[in-house]
Amino acid sequence: MNSILVNKDGAQANLLGFIFIILLELPMMHFFIHFVWSSTAANIITGLTIFSLLFFIAEYRAVAKRPVSISKSQLIIRYGLYPAYNIALKNIKSIDLNTDFIARARSIKRYNYSGYPNIKIKLNEPMGDINTVFLGLDDPHQFINAMNKEQKHAI
């Protein structure tokens, strides 16, 4: 099984940056809201901020431990805390490089933290409403080569 880590555009470093910003902002905003508005509002907003901090820490750890994997029969997309998305290799029509912005749509699934996704996967048969999957990976050429190699063996 081939595994490809997802660190495109410094995703893990960006998440760590947000964690530090939240940690710096948390006590300052708590005291500011406490003295300017109300202590109850400060406690509620601080609680919500701590919840978001926990989410960012979980996402930061998941990015490093959950790679996109290619097995003998399927592509397993694990992207941070998102649930795994499995695509049968036989259901993949084409894999191409992508350099365009991808807007939200019902027929596509995007796995990308920042910038433009650099991989476009078209499916033979839609999976639910999804007929195209976009990925943002560190080394798209390595991924495409590995996928082409596995697809030849799967046939």
Structural class: alpha+beta
Total beta-strand segments: 8
Number of domains: 2
Q: Return Rg in Å.
A: 20 Å
Explained architecture:
The structure is a single chain. The protein is of the alpha+beta class and 155 residues long. It has two domains: 6-65; 70-154, PH-domain like (Roll). It is 44% helix and 25% strand. A hairpin with a 3-residue loop joins β2 and β3. The longest helix has 27 residues, at 39-65. It is elongated and about 65 Å long. The protein starts with a strand and ends with a helix.
Show the helix and strand layout:
Elements: E1 2-4, H1 11-36, H2 39-65, E2 68-70, E3 74-77, E4 85-88, E5 92-97, E6 108-111, E7 119-127, E8 130-135, H3 140-154
Parallel strand pairs: 6-8
Antiparallel strand pairs: 1-2, 2-3, 3-4, 5-7, 7-8
Quick structural summary:
With 155 residues, the chain is of the alpha+beta class.
Relevant terms:
155 residues; alpha+beta; 2 domains; four-stranded antiparallel sheet; 3 helices
